[in-house]
Amino acid sequence: MVIEVRFFASLRRFTPNEPSGIISVDVADDLTVEELLHQMEVNPAPINSILINGKEGTLATHLVDGDRLGLFPLNVNGSK
Q1: Which residues are within 8 A (CB) of 42 and not within 5 positions of it... i.e. 6 or more apart?
Q2: What are the tens digits of pLDDT across the range 10-30?
C-alpha cells in the first residue's frame, strides 16, 4: 500500500532529500503509524500531533492504502 507522509516544520529534517516534507512510501498492509515511523527510522518523540486524512490519529492508528499522514512537531515553531 502507498501512504503519503507529510512532515511539517522542524520534522522536515526527516526528509532531507525532499524539502517540501512530503513523501510517498510503499509499505506492507495493516501497519500502524508507529510501525511506519519505526520502518522509516523516525523517532516519534518530537511528534505532537498526528492527522490521517485530516482527522486526528494516534501512533496506534492503522493505516490503509492511500492515507495522507500529517505529522506535526511539539510546538508551532517546531522547537522542543
Answers
A1: 14
A2: 999 999 889 899 999 999 898
* Model confidence pLDDT, tens digit, residues 53-66: 999 999 999 999 99
Q: How far is it, in rounded angstroms, from Cα 21 to Cα 53?
A: 16
Amino acid at 64: V
User: What whole-number distance in Å separates Cα of residue 14 and Cα of residue 7?
Assistant: 8
Cα–Cα distance measured from residue 21 to residue 32, given in angstroms and rounded to the nearest whole number: 20
| Cell digits of residue 17 | 532529500
CATH superfamily of this structure's domain 2-73: Beta-grasp domain (3.10.20.30)
